[in-house]
Amino acid sequence: MKICKTAQAGAFESNDVLITVAPNEQGGVQVQLETKRVILKQFGKQIEQVVRDQVAKMGAEDVIIKVQDKGALNYTIRARVQTALERALV
């Protein structure tokens, strides 16, 4: 799956996550996670793994994924990543 343009999904509200995807000119999958320090320390690796798993499941390559988390659960993160990736294809 080749990402053609920048796209977003989600909202920057409580219990949600804003996902922004963009083509990565250097290649590979890059995850940029922004959240509260406490959440980053406790759940940062898990959030990043959920994002990377969804990207791999969809077969996306050469993408930068910016994750602005406000306490979203894993299923919400997966859905937002999927939607943003699908929007970036069109």
Automatic annotation (TrEMBL):
GO-annotated molecular function: lyase activity
Domain of life: Bacteria
Keyword Lipid biosynthesis (UniProt): no
Subcellular location: Cytoplasm
InterPro entries hit by this protein: CitD (IPR006495), Mal_deCO2ase/Cit_lyase_ACP (IPR023439)
O-(phosphoribosyl dephospho-coenzyme A)serine modifications at: 14
Protein name according to UniProt: Citrate lyase acyl carrier protein
Keywords: Cytoplasm, Lyase, Phosphoprotein
Pfam families: ACP
The UniProt record lists the keyword Cytoplasm: yes
NCBIfam families recorded: citD, PRK13253.1
Taxonomic source organism: Desulfitobacterium dichloroeliminans (strain LMG P-21439 / DCA1)
Main subcellular location: cytoplasm
A GO cellular-component term linked to this record: cytoplasm
